[in-house]
Amino acid sequence: MKNGTRGWEITFLDILTLLLTFFVFIISISIFKTAEYKEFWRLKEEQKIKKIKPFRSFKFELIKGLKLPVLNPETEKLLTELEEAFFESDFKGVNVYYDENKISLMVSEQIGFDEGKFALKENVKPLLLKLVDPINRSTFDVNIEGHSDSLESPQIDHMDRSLNRALSVARFLIGSGVDKRKISVSGYGPHRPVASNETPEGRQQNRRVEVNIIINNGSD
């Protein structure tokens, strides 16, 4: 070889050059995000989204910059029906979310229940009634979850309260015409918080009932 350079040395140097180029590429895409990607995470932080993406809050306004997942026709039809049903509604403390597995109507304690009570408030019943026909027209099952904060009190059994509130919602929907075979109920107490239990505001967010329409049961 010219200048005493052996062929294997040239090959080795070529491989090192390729590896160096590869690592530079990996580092660059890890550090430098596009403007769109940065905007996505900025919006995500502002909305304090955890695990699930908001569909629309009342009045179903989409969050700018968030791309919606691809939906099958039945799910898209159900979301359209819910949009039409809730368009004229204005309930503070209620939000609708969805991801690839479920559509969730999240009802806070403030709008749904008196403090420490299991019975539904009268003003939330018209809201729940709007779910009856869309649920019945779909093939989807519904799981109703009760949740609480973690504030310790000898007067409060969090598991019991969360389960009984979920049961109150289930009984109302069944009594309003939803097929009882579609409905299951869970009480999680303080074990699935959506906010910090260190503040009054966070504890208030955690005291909630979620009506989850299961759009993907994992059977596929």
Could you please describe the fold and organization of this structure?
This protein is an alpha+beta fold. The chain folds into two domains: 2-31; 55-214, OmpA-like domain (60s Ribosomal Protein L30, Chain: A, 2-Layer Sandwich). Helices cover 43% and strands 16% of the residues. It has a six-stranded mixed β-sheet. α3 packs antiparallel against α5 (125-137). The longest helix is centred in the N-terminal third of the chain and has 25 residues, at 7-31. The protein is elongated and about 85 Å long. The protein starts with 6 loop residues before the first helix and ends in a 6-residue tail after the last strand. Mean pLDDT is 76; it is low at 46-66.
Query: CATH superfamily membership of the largest domain, which one?
Result: OmpA-like domain
Main sheet characteristics: 6 strands, mixed
Low-pLDDT runs: 46-66
Number of strands: 6
* Adjacency order of strands in the biggest sheet: 1-2-3-6-4-5
Individual helix count: 7
Structural class, by secondary structure, is alpha+beta
Assembly of the depicted chains = single chain
**Ends distance:** 61 Å
Indicate the CATH class of the largest domain. Alpha Beta
